[in-house]
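Q: I'm a student working through a structural biology exercise. My instructor gave each of us a protein and asked us to get a predicted structure, then write a short paragraph describing it. Mine is G-protein coupled receptors family 3 profile domain-containing protein. I'm not confident about reading structure output yet, so if you can add a plain explanation after the tokens, that would really help. Here is the sequence I was given:
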Amino acid sequence: MRVRDKLTNQERIGKDSNYEQEGKVQFVIDAVYAMAHALHNMHQELCPGKVGLCAKMDSINGTHLLKHIRRLNFAGIAGNPVLFNENGDAPGRYEIYQYQIRNRTAEYKIIGHWTDQLHLNVRTMQWPGGIRRIPSSICSHPCQAGERKKIVKGIPCCWHCERCDGYQYQADTYTCKMCRFDLRPNVNHTGCVPIPIVKLEWSSPWAVIPVLIAVVGIMATVFVVVTFVRYNDTPIVKASGRELSYVLLTGIFLCYATTFLMISTPDVGICSLRRIFLGLGMSISYAALLTKTNRIYRIFEQGSMSVSAPRLISPASQLVITFSLASVQLLGVCIWFGVDPSKAIIDYEDQRTSDPVMARGVLKCDISDLSLICLLGYSMLLMVTCTVYAIKTRGVPETFNEAKPIGFTMYTTCIIWLAFIPIFFGTSQSTEKVSLQLLYYYYY
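A: Happy to help. First, here is the predicted structure for G-protein coupled receptors family 3 profile domain-containing protein. I'll explain a few features afterward.
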């Protein structure tokens, strides 16, 4: 049967008909019309006022025809304009659909189109939760101050914002860097600021207590010295060995006076005086006690063997021995000055906390633990030697009233040293703990 036999002459193609045309047919028709319009325009240009082909169109120049094709601008069969851009391409035309659910039925609904620019009908759009406002449609939000962009692998236009934490600051858009050792990041981590410098202040409670103890100790020492001077020629003062007693009181005075050097603001002068007097007071005190116990030991040891008096027991000899022992401490300090001159430093590691806000630099003298042990080591040697002689003289007669008090003093001192050393060096890396060292220093 031929197709013509099926036609009823009532067929119509429209919106209400059941006919569905192939989607690409309109482009074929528009292409034919484009060629026709271009030939028509070229004919009017080359053969004005003539019907049919003229001599100029006997051989059609394809380049000339292409020029007319690119100039076209007419409405196509679907009502869309037919034209070409500078590259000879037809402009893109797109219909934008949104997947919507209406009355529990899912469908794609046209919500706009794109022809050179976007055209959306916002009122016909639907969003999850029934919201009306268009949700943000970006890959990544801008990073805040102090945050760097960490690019997502495989998606160069997307990133994660990563905070520059700890002692880091934002060097550029993509990099966090560590602040210099003497700096810490500012509040928003966009740069670095100096770390505050702290030292032991005179008004601090940690300084007031040692100062009060030092003042009381100095007053007591001065009171004893004045009493000795006033009763200098009395038998009891002469029997106590007044020359060595004055030396011993001088050493005790220096120990208390060192407090003010320990609290003063460190500089080259203060640090030098600390090196000199921190161990000198103890060396003088122990040198005097050692000389006295050695004198007692030699007197009784010589008395058991001979009636003649031992040598070097006169007051002048005792002073020479005492100052000779103390001069060893000064000699060691002088050698120390030559090897490692005094200087004040700022220690940024001592109070470098995990939270940069709490970080502080400690202004202190450049005295290491090893140097301090060497500085006090000689005093410890004098103390141990003095204790040995105190043990040897523990059997002297009761009427000789110096030996046993000295022995008791040295026994207790040795016990205190066992607690003093770990506490003193265990607290040597903190500003406030300097006063704690002083307290143990006095107790010792």
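A: Here are two points you could use in your paragraph. Residues 198-443 form a domain with the Rhopdopsin 7-helix transmembrane proteins fold (CATH 1.20.1070.10). The chain has three domains: 93-130, 147-194, 198-443. It's a good idea to check both against the output above yourself.
Q: Great, thank you!
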